[in-house]
Amino acid sequence: MGFLKIRGNIVKAVLFDFDGTLAKLNIDFQYMREEVLQIASSYGIGPNLLETKFVLEIINTVSDKLNLKSVQESENFRKEAMNFIENLEIMAAEDGELFENTKELLTCLKAHCLSTAVVSRNCEKAICLVFPDILNYCDAVVCRDKVANVKPHPQHLHTAINILRASPQLTLMLGDHPLDIETGRNAGTFTAGVLTGHHLEADFLKAGADLVLAEAADLIQMIK
Ligand SMILES: [Mg+2]
Predict the structure, then answer these.
(1) Are 119 and 85 in the same domain?
(2) Which of 32, 110, 135, 175 sits a CA distance of 20 to 30 A from 69?
(3) How many Å lie between the centroid of ligand 1 and the Cα of residue 73?
């Protein structure tokens, strides 16, 4: 049995982001964001009132602002916006596919007794459409539906780490977005960026990643 070592430490668990990391990234986040801002505008909340750029946080902020005026308005907005993004995620998942060597990677990690989990801001329904037998390959799936606070909040990773009975210090968080690195650092894990999304090596190094890999399956060669 081999070991996966990061900075001289043996890692026992690996947490993976999903889209752009284990599966092809085909969600158009820019379109998603623009449409959610459009929905917010129809409730009287303009983009100038929003400081955040991530869709789930935009929805929370708008919802909080509306809640000050009307609980019903706030609930209506949240429902409309969440339905919109979920439909977009499901549509993307219907055309989605895993990277060629994702199953090989997860099988290899399992063979070397590493625990694995997927930690995603996507909905579970979309992930299961792309990877229906995910639980045969991976010990846990923690999507946004399962936690109160999603990435970059450390709670998202700590929930997965607890399910795996792992500890943050012996866990690697791997993802295709600097936000995944930020989250890992917030949660106290090792972090790795992968270049299979829309980000460059420099983006991950700037975010403080412990390592940057061309793709997630490069972990296979690191097991020694
Ligand atoms: Mg991603």
Answers:
(1) no
(2) 32
(3) 31
Tokens of 219: 């972990």
Q: Range of 122's domain?
A: 4-24+97-222
Rg, the chain, Cα only: 18
Q: Which of 57, 73, 94 is the last residue of a domain?
A: 94
Read off the pLDDT of each residue in 115-128 and give the average, rounded to a whole number.
Answer: 97
Report whether 109 contacts 116 (CB < 8 A). Answer: yes
Say how many C-beta atoms besides its own lie within 10 A of residue 141's C-beta.
21
Q: Which residues of 184-218 are buried (b: 16+ CB within 10 A; e: fewer)?
A: bbbbebbbbbbbbbebeeebbeebebbbbbebbbb
Cα–Cα distances in angstroms (integers) from residue 70 to residues 6, 41, 42, 62, 205, in the given order: 50, 16, 15, 12, 44
The answer on 198 and 126 residing in a single domain is yes
pTM above 0.85, yes or no: yes
Amino acid at 212: V
Q: Ligand 1 centroid vs 44 CA: distance in angstroms?
A: 31
Digit-coded pLDDT (tens) for 67-108: 999 999 999 999 999 999 999 999 999 999 999 999 999 999
Instruction: Give dist(CA 133, CA 74) in Å, integer.
Output: 37
Ligand 1 centroid, distance to 71 Cα (angstroms):
33
How many domains does one find in the chain? 2
CA of 67 to the centre of ligand 1 (A): 30
Tell how far the Cα of 121 is from the centroid of ligand 1, in angstroms: 8
Tokens matching residue 132: 């229906």
